[in-house]
Design brief:
With 307 residues, chain A is of the alpha+beta class. Chain A contains 7 helices and 13 strands. In chain A, strands 1, 2, 3, 4, 5, 12 and 13 form a 7-stranded antiparallel β-sheet that branches. Chain A has a 4-stranded antiparallel β-sheet with strand order 10-9-8-11, covered by helices on one side. The radius of gyration of chain A is 21 Å and the shape is globular. The relative contact order of chain A is 0.22. Classes of the chains: A alpha+beta (307), B mainly alpha (325), C alpha+beta (494).
């Protein structure tokens, strides 16, 4: 599936900002199922410097500074991607028991899985606790396959928690989400990660987008027209498997990955500091447009009519 | 030098000068009311007006009496221009630039602060004359110590420039307010009553003896001339502006008569005005207007100094910072 | 006042041997003190204290109302270290800092030591001082810890051990310098006769090292000292060092990043800064990268740093190696990177996350000192022999709940030095913090450093925040050597 994604973030200030510096995590990365054909960041007004670098997790970060006074900041990220779904994403993870993956992450052999270990420990927004392992425990009976267990956890989160935009903010702690059983995709993704880590498994927070267009006959997927978030679990040799608890699905062709990290703080789309500004307002718009399938474009040839 | 340090040197000196001037005003006023008990209370409001903080005073206290005027002007922490607030602010500024000032300067400021702090704790409002003398002495000591123990470099010049601008401002305010209180008493010209009032004005500027030496008899016009245009009397507005200019030139490195930035330019213009002023013209166009415009111009020089030296380049107005997420 | 009757009470004493005779090098000092007229020593002690107060050598925080400034208590009896002993210490410290530096560089880049399983990955990646934004960074010369302070103690066996590494913003060197100048005034003749290795060139060596970090091609590097401000307890030191080096002392608000470079706001406009000696914690340095609420930081500093446009001493992220949990692995770290045996040993350490160690610790709480890996300043600590059964039970609970955060060490019979108490001398426990400068061309170890003394009788806690004091440390020159720091010009007796 080919997609054109446009993500616009706009800051409007009541007073002029004399200087601002920002770090953006808006350019999608390459993954085994996603190829980025092109991606560009456009910043208005034009920044004094704009540099890109790759962070410790392989995400593409852009740093820019605007050194002239401005009342409005507009950051537009445009990307062209091809997402190919793995027809059987859970296949290899189905073969392995969840405890054996957990075992791989501890003890002497742990260093073979170095890349995954960063996602095993507490991170700035997520701390392991008994509360999470108590909740998750029901999905992890002995010797169950990892895929089954995590899919079960995902489903339970989907059923037990209510999607309620406006209830939580970026700053709402996970414990409150657990108590009130409400939140948005960011909270559910964090919750999934917290549960998995509390069970001794490595899990990542994934940020990205989800396509608006509902496939024929299916319900509209929540998360449209906004950034979306889900989680990913390390399955040992099978690699990383994604799960979307907000929509109770294993992401396939409709999910576009931008970046992943230990939690939201590693991948916030735009963060920075501005001098001045007074009161400010933020507008965000995301457009995920599917490009018509190449195959259907070509009509079957027919003989030229004579006469 | 660091803008922040220059800023602190400039302000710490301005605040000490301010505190000293308030002490002087009060002391002179106090003496005058002792001499003329009839108008005792009526003289405290004008004193408040001289400082320019009458709005705030009205909000906090209402009508002026000797007690609340002194409280407001000397100890009130809610009044940013009270003697206590000024000395405390000066000390805070000094503390943040301790490595630039001599230890004697710091000790003197510290002692000054402690003295006021202790006096504030005493319940009695009956402040003896000695208290105000002590304040003026402490300020003079500070100036003297600064003069003789600190390098006369950029930092010292910022300090002196601040002090001179403050002094010019306060002297012109004093003239503005007191002159017009005294003017209605035109009927009393030449009377002892009149002389006492004028004498009090001169004492407020520590100018009484010097004036006598220079001009002899009390004459309102000559007093204006002395306090405004004299180029030798260290408390005269003209003298202060001359000295501020010298320090400004030292800071920027410009030769006399040239300018490198707006602050230097506006100060230079103000100086020219005073260099070529004539008393008759001033009175023709109105003394009050002249004094008012002088204060406005001193203020714009202050604002220009802020812009040109203390907050160069980018961040000009707002120092708010917002974090975006 | 004489040393007669001074009792070492079975502890290793730095000045007297177990028979009560002065150790080599200390005899001149002892003799001089013994010869002083009655109460003269106390008089000199008081004069030194007054001098400290007048010089403003304080460490306490100002409150809004008061003016209480406390001096860091100082005792005029110096601690003496033999030249030969110091040679070994110096070698050991250089070895250790080289290894730790390799460790930090590795952890943020190839992570070979983790791949080879020498240090548990979890300890490193979840260490309090580990900073994700430092992954992949390559500071100038590959040096991360430019200025470090290593705490040493001497046990009852007479051997030195490393108690702790301080790789972030170690403080105290200003006391070393001021103590030295006080001692030169207090005992000018003895000082001269003893031939002590100088410490007064520390500021110029520091400056040289900092200048050496400037980006390539910069001819007159601009160096600044960055302080959090006057309310920081070590402010005096920040301003002292800036003054001694002749460089500006700046706060966060004085700096900004412009066109990718760090600039300083001056009365003549913006001036470029090449090297920052930062005395501010990692977390507060850059609100764009670290704590967003930090009003002390400079937004964009990390971006300028990672582009190589400004050098930071110490580099951000060094805290990963002075974590107490990592401390337990330093001997392995030295072996791994340098293929050498450690010259100075760690205090024997039990790591509660290792099952055998934890078992031992829980069974011997009354004999051990238990520390939380993330606390400093002596808080969050159990001193076994001085604790009650309740306190031990409490700690046992904590250790079982969170084994990753505790280590334990046997109580050491720390060495002692005589201290003036009223009209006689008593021994008090001391430690030693030498300072190490790691420059592009060489590593310099300050001869001596800060001797911190636990002033309370029987106390083992030497931190300033908990009632400790300091002494001057005299590292003697080898026989025949003479000290460039002669006091012959400085004859003011007190």
């Amino acid at each position: 599936m080919k997609y054109n994604v446009t993500h616009i973030t706009q800051y409007l200030y009541s007073e002029a900002v004399s200087l601002c510096r920002n770090e953006a995590c808006l350019l999608p990365r390459e993954t085994p199922t996603q190829r980025c054909l092109s991606s560009r960041l456009l910043v208005e007004p034009a920044p004094a410097d704009l540099r890109e670098r790759i962070d410790g997790f392989g995400n593409r970060l852009s740093h820019f500074a605007i050194q002239q006074p401005h009342n409005e900041l507009k950051v537009t990220a445009r990307s062209e991607l091809i997402v190919t779904a793995d027809p059987e994403p859970l296949a290899s993870a189905n073969q392995v028991a969840w405890e054996s993956v957990r075992k791989q992450l501890t003890g002497a052999r742990a260093s073979n899985n170095l890349g995954a270990l960063s996602f095993l420990y507490d991170s700035p927004l997520i701390g392991k606790s008994q509360q999470f392992s108590d909740y998750a425990g029901a999905s992890f009976p002995p010797l169950r396959s990892l895929a089954e267990a995590v899919a079960d956890l995902m489903q339970r989160i989907y059923h037990d928690f209510k999607y309620d935009p406006g209830f939580t903010t970026v700053a709402t702690p996970l414990s409150e989400v657990m108590e009130t059983r409400r939140g948005v995709c960011q909270d559910f993704a964090h919750l999934g990660v917290a549960c998995l880590r509390s069970m001794g498994l490595a899990a990542r927070y994934v940020s990205g987008y989800i396509e608006t267009l509902p496939p024929a006959g299916q319900e509209r997927l929540v998360g449209a027209d906004a950034s979306h978030a889900w989680f990913s679990v390390y399955a040992g040799e099978a690699g990383w498997i994604d799960f979307d608890p907000t929509n109770n699905q294993v992401p396939s062709e409709q999910h576009i990955t931008v970046a992943w990290g230990r939690d939201f703080s590693d991948v916030s789309p735009l963060r920075g500091v501005a001098f001045g500004g007074g009161k400010h307002k933020v507008n965000v718009s995301v457009d995920v447009a599917r490009e018509p399938d190449g195959l259907l474009q070509n009509q079957s040839q027919s003989q030229k009519q004579t006469n | 030098m660091l803008s922040r340090v220059a800023n602190s040197m400039y302000w710490l000196n301005r605040y000490i000068e301010r505190a000293e001037n308030v002490a002087r005003f009060i002391d002179a006023n106090y003496h005058m009311t002792l001499d003329i008990p009839d108008i005792a209370n009526a003289q405290w409001q004008p004193l408040i007006n001289t400082t320019g903080d009458h709005e705030l005073f009205k909000k906090l206290y209402g009508e002026a009496t000797r007690e609340n005027a002194i409280e407001f002007l000397v100890f009130d922490r809610n009044n940013p221009n009270s003697i206590f607030s000024c000395v405390r602010a000066a000390r805070e500024n000094a503390r943040s630039v301790r490595e630039y000032i001599s230890s004697e300067m710091w000790e003197q400021l510290n002692t000054f602060y402690l003295m006021i702090n202790n006096a504030a704790k005493e319940v009695s409002m009956d402040l003896p004359h000695q208290f105000f003398v002590d304040i003026m002495t402490a300020s003079h000591a500070f100036i003297g110590i600064t003069e003789s123990t600190m390098n006369h470099g950029e930092g010292w010049h910022f300090g002196r420039m601040g002090r001179m601008l403050e002094r010019a401002d306060k002297t012109s305010r004093l003239l503005d307010v007191k002159y017009f209180i005294l003017l209605p008493s035109v009927d009393y010209i030449g009377s002892s009553y009149d002389n006492i009032l004028w004498g009090a004005l001169l004492r407020s500027a520590s100018a009484f003896e010097m004036y006598r030496k220079r001009h002899g008899r009390i004459d309102p016009k000559k007093i204006v001339d002395f306090l405004l245009l004299d180029a030798n009397f260290p408390r005269a507005v003209h003298y202060c502006i001359v000295t501020a200019m010298i320090s400004m030139n030292n800071i920027t490195g410009s030769p006399r008569g040239a300018f490198t930035n707006k602050a230097e330019q506006s100060l230079g213009r103000l100086l020219s005005e005073f260099n070529f002023a004539s008393l008759d013209e001033i009175f023709e166009n109105g003394l009050h207007e002249y004094l008012d415009s002088t204060q406005t111009r001193i203020n714009s020089v202050g604002a220009a100094i802020q812009r040109d030296f203390f907050r160069p380049q980018l961040v000009d107005s707002a120092s708010d910072v917002i974090t975006m997420e | 006042m004489r040393f007669d009757g001074y009792d070492t009470e079975g502890f290793y004493d730095e000045v007297f041997d177990p028979e009560g005779n002065p150790r080599p090098g200390a005899d001149l000092l002892i003799q001089r003190v013994n010869d002083l007229p009655e109460t003269e020593l106390q008089r000199r002690q008081k004069a030194a204290e007054r001098a400290l107060l007048n010089l403003g050598i304080t460490f306490n925080v100002y409150s809004n109302e008061d003016q209480t400034e406390k001096i860091f208590p100082f005792d005029i009896v110096p601690r003496i270290v033999q030249a030969k002993e110091w040679e070994v210490i110096e070698k050991g410290l250089k070895q250790r800092i080289k290894a730790l530096n390799c460790f930090i560089d590795d952890v943020y880049n190839d992570q070979n030591i983790l791949k080879d399983g020498i240090v548990p990955t979890e300890l490193v990646l979840s260490a309090d001082g580990f900073r994700k934004p430092c992954i992949g960074l390559k500071p100038p010369g590959g040096i991360w810890c430019h200025i470090t302070g290593t705490d040493l103690v001497r046990g009852g066996d007479g051997e030195f051990y490393v108690l702790e590494d301080n790789l972030r913003c170690p403080s105290g060197v200003s006391y070393v310098l001021e103590n030295r100048s006080l001692m030169k005034r207090t005992f000018p003749m003895v000082f001269d006769a003893c031939s002590v290795q100088p410490v007064t060139d520390y500021p110029s060596r520091l400056l040289e090292m900092l200048q050496g970090l400037a980006p390539q091609g910069v001819r007159m590097p601009s160096v600044v000292v960055w302080t959090p401000g006057i309310y920081n307890s070590a402010y005096f030191e920040h301003s002292f060092l800036a003054q001694q080096m002749g460089v500006p002392l700046v706060e966060g608000g004085d700096l900004l990043v412009y066109n990718g470079e760090v600039m300083m706001r001056t009365t003549k406009g913006l001036e470029k800064v090449d090297v920052i000696y930062r005395r501010i914690d990692d977390d507060f340095m850059d609100p764009k990268t670290f704590r967003a609420d930090s009003m002390l930081g400079v937004p964009g500093l990390m971006a300028a740093y990672s582009s190589g446009n400004v050098a930071l001493a110490n580099a951000p992220g060094t805290g990963v190696a002075d974590d107490k949990a990592i401390y337990a692995y330093v001997p392995e770290i030295i072996r791994y990177y340098l293929k050498e045996e450690p010259i100075i040993n760690n205090v024997p350490t039990y790591a509660c996350w290792r099952d055998d160690d934890r078992q031992y610790v829980l069974e011997n709480l009354d004999k051990l000192v238990v520390k939380a890996v993330n606390e400093s300043g002596g808080y969050g600590m159990l001193v076994g022999p001085h604790s009650t059964a309740e306190e031990q039970a409490e700690f046992a609970k904590r250790i079982k709940a969170n084994p990753r955060t505790y280590i334990a060490q046997p109580t050491l019979a720390l060495s002692r030095v005589p201290v003036l108490v009223d009209d006689h001398f008593e021994g008090r426990h001391v430690d030693l913090r030498p300072y190490i400068l790691y420059g592009k061309d060489s590593i310099y170890v300050l001869p001596g450093g800060l001797t911190r003394v636990a002033l309370k009788k029987g106390s083992l806690v030497v931190n300033s925040s908990q009632g400790g004091g300091s002494k001057d440390t005299w590292v003697l020159n080898a026989e025949g050597g003479s000290s460039p720091e002669s006091t012959m010009q400085n004859q003011e007796g007190l």
